[in-house]
Amino acid sequence: MRTLIVAAALVLAANVPAKAASFNCTTAKLPAEVLICQNEILSAADEINASIYSQLRGWVPNKKVFNANERKWIKDRNACGYDLRCLKAQYENHIAYLCKLSDATEAKVEDCDQEPTEMLEKDE
């Protein structure tokens, strides 16, 4: 089931211009943000990541720590620059982390039904 959802997302992503859910692509200046906006797979990963983050915010016991961890992850992601493999790994690991956090709460996060590794396997 997860593979089917990921495959459908990739087909849809290939047919639309890339956009990111966590920031405005028209104002993207950092190399990592520019690459995310230009790459459909990274853009889809960004949208899933943002969706999971948004769904979890109401469920985590310590929002201050949760938000601080997210800011640190964004810095780590941005440190990848134009490195596609680095950005894929950042998203894969962070989505997996957020989904594990979802499992530890009572949150029902639909996006965690997808496998981040399968979503990001395809090279552009």
Please write the string of helix (H) and strand (E) elements.
Answer: HHHHHH
Shape: globular
Strand content bin: under 5%
What's the gyration radius in Å? 14 Å
Total number of helices: 6
Task: Provide mean pLDDT, rounded.
Answer: 81
Q: How many separate structural domains? A: 1
Largest sheet: none
Number of beta strands:
0
SS content category? mainly alpha
Q: State the low-pLDDT regions, or none.
A: 1-17
State the distance separating the first and last CA atoms: 24 Å
Overall helicity: 55-70%
Provide structural commentary.
The protein has 124 residues and is mostly helical. It has one domain. The chain is 64% helix and 0% strand. The protein is built from six helices and no strands. Helix 3 packs parallel to helix 5 and helix 4 packs antiparallel against helix 5. The chain is globular, with a radius of gyration of 14 Å.
Give me the secondary-structure topology.
Layout: H1 2-14, H2 31-38, H3 40-56, H4 63-78, H5 84-104, H6 116-119
